Amino acid sequence: MEGTYGAATLLGPGDDAAVIAAPDGRTVISIDTQVQDQDFRLQWPSGYKTTGFDVGWKAAAQNLSDINAMGATATSLVVSLTLPPETPVGWVEDLADGLTSAIRELGAANCSVAGGDLGRGREISVTVAVLGTLDGGPAVLRSGAKPGDILALAGTAGHAAAGLALLESSVPLDSLGPDLRGLAELQCRPQPPLAAGPAARAAGATAMLDISDGMLRDGLRLAAASGVAVDLLPGPLERLKDVLLPAAELLHADARDWVLGGGEDHGLLATFPSGTLLPPGFTAIGSIQALGMNERPGVTIAGRSADTGGWDHFAH
Amino acid sequence: MEGTYGAATLLGPGDDAAVIAAPDGRTVISIDTQVQDQDFRLQWPSGYKTTGFDVGWKAAAQNLSDINAMGATATSLVVSLTLPPETPVGWVEDLADGLTSAIRELGAANCSVAGGDLGRGREISVTVAVLGTLDGGPAVLRSGAKPGDILALAGTAGHAAAGLALLESSVPLDSLGPDLRGLAELQCRPQPPLAAGPAARAAGATAMLDISDGMLRDGLRLAAASGVAVDLLPGPLERLKDVLLPAAELLHADARDWVLGGGEDHGLLATFPSGTLLPPGFTAIGSIQALGMNERPGVTIAGRSADTGGWDHFAH
Question: Exposure string (b/e) for A132-142, b if CB count within 10 Å is 16 or more?
């Protein structure tokens, strides 16, 4: 299997630039940076120490998710690393290992690290630019949702936010059971559903984006780009919430905030024409509504204001 | 003319990724980061203050040079900015202006800024990933130089290094004449010869790279990748040195060190088959020699050791 990875890389590291296949005459590109103490802590209050592997994995996963959100398949990553001179070499090797492991284990089978750049700075900073291919199909934009469309979610919601709260808490991570530790692991090593983006495009998704800032904020982006209203269903939100209740109880937190406001799971929010058989991995969580006269694009839950208080009315 | 910029950008900012044309089914990609106090100072000993415009220009120019060095033409930049919260908004606007001005004024006519990402950090860091097209031709690698080839230079050599020395000196920049100030400006806003890369490819260049770390170090890279020896001609080196003599005299420096060791002009070092009519912008500065028995790839000046002392033998 290993030989099949990186099939799109026509010229890899060693020259001034790499050359990547773009079989349909287009390439999809996104860029994203992770900075120490902004996007991760080297040492968390819960006692967990972020590994180079975590940082490499997350840098790859976040970028692969952006390609997924267009309905595309990743072909290549290039990486620019800024490191303080005292960074241990082993930490950097772990980072490279995390990058390639995320590519492989998340299923980006044609993708490889095609090049990079290394420099010094006062803080660790990892920038990844990712390329992808649409294989001859259309890109799925944020702006295509139509009234009557089904709104669907692929992947988890709120798990990474719950994981962040656990990492930031003073409860030792080591003292927790595997389910709760799994939430913290998801914060450090997100699991974007990379098969779901191309599947959504193949199924005729009208709009899509990845949830990087939470269902409410990203739902609003989709609503604004499409000129529609997004209405969420209380039932599916409850089910998303229920799996987070043990963490919420431990931390005296409200799991609804994580479901509606948590982003770093990198799930996909997509819309499909009414009657579409949803592709594997997607669950219906709402619908798209026409804007009323003088109404602005927004997100509601069963027609009511979508702040956490609004949801209360529907809690079982 | 303005409407013709960015012709390659099929989908620009606003979605999770951009879509860029790759007309021959391949895309060239490189990535590079500039970090405050490593790659530039906000305030130099000479009194000069680096502007946002300078940083944006240099970030674009360095990356455009990597595409040029492959014989390719740039199609798109994506930018990831890390900024301390206290960075003035005007400085960031200047940076965006510097990026687009460099693209336009350096002649990257099909290129535009297709997307980006903004985050916080303790120091200013600007990462650019650049895409390019080879328009159906081969990429010019470092590894193709053959014994008997002509070695040629496009662009300046040592000007940016002299400019750096002027910026770092205690002589007020304001007190200098326009020629010396021009060297400092070239350090802050490099002028890679973007027409020269594709022209070299069209003329049959066998190997090429951009001079980012100096003629000796980058010449050695070309020699090592190609398995050859690089021999420089004293005459052309003297002429490159002579224009730097006023700066060298002012700073009691050796202009030869700048010519042989200075990199940030982002000129091109290319090899062509013997008898090739060199494309516009290129000057012959040496030749490629076969390695002798047990000889390792290296750089010489008229067959002698290429350290600065070696050159002394040939100084007029």
Answer: bbbeeeebbbb
Asked whether residue B156 falls in the same domain as residue B261, the answer is yes
Q: Print the domain residue range for A268.
A: 150-312
A221-271 pLDDT, tens per residue? 999 999 999 999 999 999 999 999 999 999 999 999 999 999 899 999 999
B129 and B73 assigned to the same domain? yes
Contact A131, B78 (CB under 8 A): no
Does any domain span residue A214? yes
Model confidence at A7, in pLDDT bands (50, 70, 90)? confident
**Cβ–Cβ of A17/B129 closer than 8 Å?**
no
Do both B41 and B95 map to the same domain?
A: yes
pLDDT computed for residue A172 by the predictor: 96
**pLDDT tens digits, A54-65:** 999 999 999 999
Q: Which tens digit of pLDDT belongs to each residue from B1-42?
A: 334 457 899 999 999 999 999 999 999 999 999 999 999 999
| Residue A139 domain-assigned (yes or no) | no
B202, B208 contact by CB (below 8 A) = no
Task: Report the SS3 class of residue B256.
Answer: helix
- Asked if the Cβ–Cβ distance from B31 to A141 is below 8 Å, we say no
B116 interfacial to chain A (CB closer than 8 Å): yes
Is residue B195 located within the same domain as residue B75? no
Size of interface A-B (CB pairs under 8 A): 199
Last residue in a domain, options B107, B133, B159: B133
Query: How close A172 gets to chain B, by Cα (Å)?
Result: 28
Instruction: Kindly provide the b/e burial profile for residues A28-67, where b requires at least 16 CB atoms within 10 angstroms of the residue's own CB.
Output: bbbbbbbbbeebbeeebebebebbbbbbbbbbbbbbbbbb
Q: Clarify whether residues A173 and A302 are in a common domain.
A: yes
Say yes or no: A125 and A233 in one domain: no
B82 vs A33, A119, A210: nearest CB: A33
State the CATH number of the domain containing residue A112: 3.30.1330.10
Query: Among A155, A148, A131, A190, which Cα is nearest to A9's?
Result: A131
Kindly provide the ipTM of the predicted complex, given to two decimals: 0.93
| CATH code for the domain in which residue B262 is found | 3.90.650.10
Which is it for strands B73-83 and B112-120: parallel, antiparallel or unpaired? parallel
Q: 3-state class of B49 per DSSP?
A: strand
User: Using CB atoms, which residue from B10, B82, B131 is nearest to A35?
Assistant: B82
- pLDDT tens digits, residue range A75-109? 999 999 999 999 999 999 999 999 999 999 999 98
Contact: B31, A122; criterion CB under 8 Å? no
- Say yes or no for a CB contact (<8 Å) between B129 and A134: no
Q: How many domains are contained in chain B? A: 2
Whether B181 and B247 have beta carbons less than 8 Å apart is answered as no
Question: How do residues B235-290 score in pLDDT, each as one tens digit?
Answer: 999 999 999 999 999 999 999 999 999 989 999 999 999 999 999 999 999 999 99
